[in-house]
Amino acid sequence: MSESKSTNITWHLGEVDQAKREAMKGHQGAVLWFTGLSGSGKSTLANAVELALHNRGCHTYILDGDNVRHGLNKNLTFSDEDRMENIRRIGEVARLFSDAGILTLTAFISPFRSDRAVVRELLGDRFVEVHVKASVEVCESRDPKGLYQKARAGEIKDFTGISSPYEAPESPEISVDTGELSIEDSVAQVIGYLSDAGLIAAS
Predict the structure, then answer these.
(1) How many domains does the chain have?
(2) What is the pLDDT of residues 22-47, one digit of tens each?
(3) Per-residue DSSP letters for 143-176?
């Protein structure tokens, strides 16, 4: 994690804390961290899960990899160092959202275990790692953005799964095989975990 360069600062505690916000919303604040290869279905699944949660009356927000790089992280490349900073920033933003009592869904490749471990440590038991599991072959057959083709042609450097490694989670809270499961079954698996874990009310 980046070393803090700020000095003479103190964390300010407000009168309304996380527990009060969650009591008003009727569910806990948590971060669902969707990780997987490009084309594995992270954004598709995160969006479908958000809709299911919204229909249950839950307060949600999605932090999507591409969207965040249009603003907050537009000054970052896809080098290993910038990937680390990308995830660090998202982890900090996700912590604020969680503190606000929001069920936050993040859809990022986040290829390195060490980076995800930093976010897990930051969020504690509010961190739910969702491995969106699909083989390179399945992802490449989908290739919704044509990225694998460009990576194979050498037009994209540091492309995860081709020229840059992806370190799959070793013990995620949820592992969804999107190469085998339908989107409906994938969503049901995630919602079922959240309900069983007490993060949302049982239906």
Answers:
(1) 1
(2) 777 777 889 999 999 999 999 999 99
(3) -TTSHHHHHHTTSSSS-BTTTB-----SS-SEEE
Locate tokens 């694998």: which residue? 148
**Single-letter code of the amino acid located at 10:** T
Catalytically active residues, by annotation: 110
Judge whether 124 lies within some domain. Answer: yes
pTM to 2 decimal places? 0.86
Indicate whether 3 belongs to any domain. no
- Helix (H), strand (E) at residue 117: helix 113-123
- Which structural domain range is residue 30 located in? 18-196
Which CATH number do you get for residue 124? 3.40.50.300
CA separation for the pair 43, 106 (Å, rounded): 8
- How does pLDDT run across 61-116, given as a tens digit for each residue? 999 878 888 888 899 988 888 888 988 999 999 999 998 999 999 998 999 999 99
Give strand pairing partners of 39. Answer: none
